[in-house]
TrEMBL record:
Record SMART domains: ENDO3c
Reaction(s) catalysed by this chain's protein: Hydrolysis of alkylated DNA, releasing 3-methyladenine, 3-methylguanine, 7-methylguanine and 7-methyladenine
UniProt source species: Caldimonas mangrovi
PANTHER family named among the record's database cross-references: DNA-3-METHYLADENINE GLYCOSYLASE
Top EC class, one word: hydrolase
Domain named HhH-GPD: residues: 51-207
Native organism taxonomy: Bacteria, Pseudomonadati, Pseudomonadota, Betaproteobacteria, Burkholderiales
The protein's name in its UniProt record: DNA-3-methyladenine glycosylase II
């Protein structure tokens, strides 16, 4: 397991959010030293997100383990070039659907061919990175935003397509009444420039176990 990385802005974000938002002022202390953590490399993180689409966490892990074994042995770092060399029927045999095989190959082709600018990401804004990622088959805006939060650890991402975030805002700010994206965005205005951190704590209010990608 590669070493976990925690954002260096986390403590400052917690202080900022506690001053600006009454809900987060109460929520943040409940989770002690728990932090967002990033592991692995970019290609592997995105490949795992594709493998896990529309199946349970347990099933996704089983398929991933077989896939990783096939590529280069049990590993947390999958080389894109090796994925491109694997036959489709071999990938299907580990439990991947035909569509996921296509998605993984497209992802591998984008990384191997340099269509995504991994080394430039540090200098690119969030929307520019999202545009690069959603050009890959099987990756939509939600997956790209999760990647920004959990892998690149960008501090100010607000994933308005995330049902957990909308539910958490409903429960914590609107007494359980349904909320629109516009209402969620309005609540989040007080969170800037640390919307990712606020989102992480809103998720925790629904499920105390930290989410990892």
């Amino acid at each position: 397991m590669p070493k976990s990385v925690t954002p260096d802005y986390w403590d400052d974000a917690c202080k900022h959010l506690s001053k600006r938002d009454r809900v987060l002022r109460k929520l943040i202390p409940q989770f002690g030293e728990a932090r967002l953590q990033s592991r692995g490399d970019a290609f592997t993180t995105l490949a795992r997100s594709i493998v896990g689409q529309q199946i349970s966490v347990k099933a996704a892990q089983a398929v991933w383990d077989r896939f990783a074994e096939m590529v280069s042995g049990p590993s947390t770092r999958i080389p894109p070039a090796e994925v491109l060399e694997l036959p489709a029927d071999g990938l299907r045999a580990v439990g991947l659907s035909a569509r996921k095989v296509e998605y993984l190959r497209d992802l591998a082709a984008h990384f191997h061919g340099g269509a995504v600018h991994v080394r430039q990401w540090a200098l690119m804004d969030d929307e520019a990175i999202i545009e690069e990622l959603i050009a890959i088959r099987g990756i939509g805006r939600w997956t790209a935003e999760m990647f920004l939060i959990f892998h690149l650890m960008r501090p100010n991402v607000l994933p308005l397509d995330d049902l957990g975030l909308l539910k958490g805002i409903s429960v914590n700010y609107f007494s359980g009444e349904p909320v629109s994206r516009a209402e969620a965005r309005e609540v989040s205005e007080a969170w800037a420039p640390f919307r990712s951190v606020a989102t992480w704590y809103i998720w925790r209010s629904l499920d105390p176990l930290p989410v990892e990608y």
